[in-house]
Amino acid sequence: MAAGHSPLAQFEIKRLVPIEIGNLDVSFTNSSAFMVLTVIATSAFLIFGMRRHALVPGRWQSLTELLYIFIANLVKDTVGSQGRPYFPFIFTVFMFVLVGNLFGMVPYSFTFTSHIVVTFAMAMVVFIGVTIIALAKHKMHFFTFFMPPGVPMAMAPLLVPIEIISYLSRPISLSVRLFANMLAGHTLLKVFAGFVISLGVFGVFPLAFVVALTGLEIVIAMLQAYVFTILTCLYLNDALHLH
Description:
By secondary structure, the chain is mainly α. Helix content is 66%, strand content 4%.
């Protein structure tokens, strides 16, 4: 199969503006472009959605307020009142992942959340951030998190390493979950789309499947943004309350 027709060709990183600093390649790529576009589109959506502050909101303002309230309630339910100062960050994470995922559903676009380096970088920001918050709030008491209360000390040599490994694996599980779902879904779409033309008149069957799968992928794109956000909230809850 030609490289241009490969289901994985859609994930190829392409340089748009080559930039090298010494031996470091910091080129502006198609992935960078869609990240910037995501930030611009999200900012424009929220700014223009709330520019009128109408008492009886229109559709645009209603959608903006719905997203705001949805994440506000999510933070309140998972973290409690102590999570309020971190709402802007959590809301930003949700909108960035959501809009980035949905941009990836547009034909001939690029899905930057299908790259593990991107999702892992976001997961590491969350992981390092909540760890710093936990250390700042609880000091040395933070390390009691790795020893469940009520467990006999004789079990500590077994349980503490398990808890530490589980804690350190958080950015891996958080990033792989988003990356794998986006990669697998878009690859499957590309594979079945390739059958539409090659099967001629019988291509109507894979076409119907592609349409259905596209709808499912849009749902998954929104669901994965929610999963990434709620896990961020749960990690923040652990950092603030140590449980």
